[in-house]
Description:
418 residues, 6 helices
Amino acid sequence: MKRLLPLLPVAVIVPFLSSSAFATTGYFMHAYSVKSQGNAGTSIANFQDSLTIASNPAGLSLVGKRLDAGVTLFAPDREAEIVGNMAGANGQYDGNSRKYFLIPEFGYSHPINDQLTAGIAVYGNGGMNTNYKNNPYAAFANTGSAGINLNQLFVSPAVSWEYAENQSVALAANILYQRFQAKGFDGDVFGSVSTDQSKLSHGGHDDSTGVGARIGWSAKVNDKLTVGATYSSKIDASRFKKYEGLFAERGDFDVPENYGVGLNYQVTPALSVAADYQRINYSDVDSVGNGLGQLFSGNLFGTQNGPGFGWDDINVYKVSATYQASPKLTLRAGYSYNDQPVQADQTFLNILAPGVVQDHLSVGATWNIDQNQEVSIAYTHALEETVKGENSVAAFGGGEANLTMSQNILGVSYGVKF
């Protein structure tokens, strides 16, 4: 670790803390490196760089000694509509006061001996960001603009052990730092259903930390087939104390457990195909999984069983192809689909977190500058998705809230092999 830590400069970490976050597969990233973005996130058995730590750290045993750094430009389009509301909230609402976000990534892997490889990765989860200049909750005694911002930074040291020929197991620590801000919904109407109106909104930025673990396994079955599996534990994070009146369990906001399996098949010497399955258990985190209907059971915002965003657990399916077009050029393409986390009766509060996209189309390429250096690029388009509310504003004057989102994602990275 003494050799790895100098490679983790402040210049790498600071952008994570200053960049607003976004939502893809719920609020997880659909891919954790630029190369993986080009393959729509297939990375559980498709090992291409040191950022494999974020997906399946067992891939460290196969990527060799290398350093990777990149940045992703993210452009989400989030909109909301309220119709049929008796309190006067009807209207079209644009949540794009900020349109562009830069998200960096960093990874390093270092073989220790013939069996052990160590590494470290710094990356961000998806997160959530909205900013509505025209407050969709203004009819409920709220003033100013409305929105939330969630950033999640992970620092993940890892070690992989090749315990048998072409078979590896690995362990990575998920060291979490997250930051949150909310504004625009602390008026008397929402305050009357909160345990603490002063800690419901407009608390400024608040910080939270936690530690979890990710384990991984990979096996090269034969010259053509590689398989992998990964599991990441739930991270029990410290509370957002400035938002004890908003999130369930007095400001608690944990990171849900997730796991998956994948395979990569070498069809020809130049062409490989990969497929991943991932499960994200959002419902295990009360502040995310509890629905707004908790209010009807007497559970106020901020209580042990208080309301959250009402997100369901989701399954994520990914497929991709990688083609070695020439000794210098590698081409990638992929498609991913995830279940809808936001249900039709939960759209009203999710105006703040409209993570409703489901389909991602990706393309990418890597150019080998020389035998040691490479540059990669990837573009992903998340198709526009709309979730129309059904009995979604019952507690606040009736009517429906409808959510729409699409996304464009452009990433560029540089890798060097030692």
